[in-house]
Amino acid sequence: MSAPLTGFLSDRVWRRRKAPYVGLTCCSVVTWGALLTTLGSLPLAGLYALFFLMGLVGGAFVLAWPIGREVNPPHLAGVAVAVVNLGGFVGAALTQGPVGAVLDAGWTGRLVAGARAYPVTAYRAAFGVCALFVLAAAITALFVRETHARNVHANPL
Question: What is the pTM of this model?
Answer without folding.
Answer: 0.88
